[in-house]
Amino acid sequence: MPRGYAPVAVVLLLAVTVVAAAAVATAVPALPGDPPPQRGVAADATSDGRVAVTLHAGESIDIESATVRVAVDGEPLAHQPPVPFFAARGFHGGPSGPFNVAADQSWAVGETASLQVAATNSPELRVGATLTVRVLVDGRVVAVGETTVEKAS
């Protein structure tokens, strides 16, 4: 390689490095921030549609920023609980605990929230099915509880 080309090669390498660094710098701010703190929940469900979710560990959850998603054997309920609520399509009556609109809007460790899935909602909670409850805060999953649906007593 003739000597006159070496400075050109160095300038080109420097330009490529600057462009690559700029691309990385613009991508980094677009990355999501720290994930929300994780919580521990336990779920219980019976074939008459009763679902109870207990917060076992982690920080309290502000119900106003929470979303709850319920699935049976991996299939989401047609009508999801719009927490907090009192009466909602796909649910029988009002929920209890933090899911109820009249309750304290903070779901603390040890508290149980419950609801009853109506027979008009699908899929049905049948004995032996796996019920999964996902709790999201600001759209991000912070807890997952899973249980086997038991026969109602």
From TrEMBL:
Protein name: Type IV pilin
Archaeal Type IV pilin N-terminal domain segment(s): 8-74
A Pfam family assignment: Pilin_N
Domain of life: Archaea
